[in-house]
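Fig. S4 source data, part A: sequence.
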Amino acid sequence: MTGHYPYDITGDGRTVLKGGYGLYAHLRGVDELQMANLLADSIVTFNWRDLNGNRVFDAGEVNFDLNGPDFVSRRVEVGQALHGAVPNPDEKEPMSHEVSLSLERQLADNLAVRATGIYSRMTNTYRVQNNKRPYESHNVPVINPDPGPDGRLGTADDPGISITYWEYPLALRGSAFQQPMLINDPNADSDYKSFELAVSRRLVNRWMVMASYSATKLNIPYVANTAGVTDFTGGGGLTVILATYDPNAEIFAENKTWEWIGRVSGAYIFPYDVQVSANFEHRSGDPWARQVSFTGGRTIPQIRLRVEPIGTRRLPNLNILNMRVQKSFFLRGGHKLGLQANIYNVLNINEPLGVTPLSGPNFNIPTSITPPRIGEVGLTYTF
């Protein structure tokens, strides 16, 4: 449901105020349903006791009883959500509310400027609750020192702090105490505040240009901690959106960072109708935080946690320039032949798009980089 309305402030059609409101319903995702699919592929984690110290699994070193002492968890393979979900009779549909207001002014026949503000809020946000291990059952503290970026204790980069996570009592161990359910947590509701400034000059006297700058302040209370490269996009699947309902999911989970993007694009028509255009984009790097894989608990023997706020680290900003040259030939009968050449990433930047956030030998090593400079030649025929 949306409604947007313009208002001519000056009465001459040159200054327009636009405002509106939108209400958008959440669409049920496949991964949300997979939690309840008992036939879905799942991953079961057990403790392994290397009884003979040979670092090779031997029969009898793991008790594979789903309610035995070695059982840790059973999760859906896609999204890493808990397996065996039940419906929530009190579940409410998540909604997105958006309010926008913009002021646009025509300075000349071919030149206009615009300022826009947008506020969005998500309500009835989902989290995953384990009905048989409630929030308050995570009451056994496990304290671990932070080993620093190298992942090894006793080295020069140790920050000298400890992280506490919470496990549940041994009495709640086993698959019998695993029953996930979607719940609405008002404390998880997020909001976004954005603004944009833009200027545009239409194609006159063989050239045109458009420029804009926008920024968004994020307020996301609980970003699920996945093995993903960044803390906003996460690793894909359900856990990007849904945090579990337990105190461990709230450790350094808040994302209150800014993201921004600036764009400039233009075109010029040379003699013989040869058009050259360019698009430059400056984009903020994704925020992230260092993670550590902690061990030592009995019911949660291993857990991966952030050890600093999201945004303590950022990927490098991206400055990408793309260019195009095109020429059209008009043929008989309204037919047209078009030739074009594109160059992507003209500056050939190689900034990382993702890094390994886990402390250890691979910490901060890029997992992907910006694609290299690429040339493309195209031919089109219109008839």
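Fig. S4 source data, part B ends here. The chain has one domain: 2-382.
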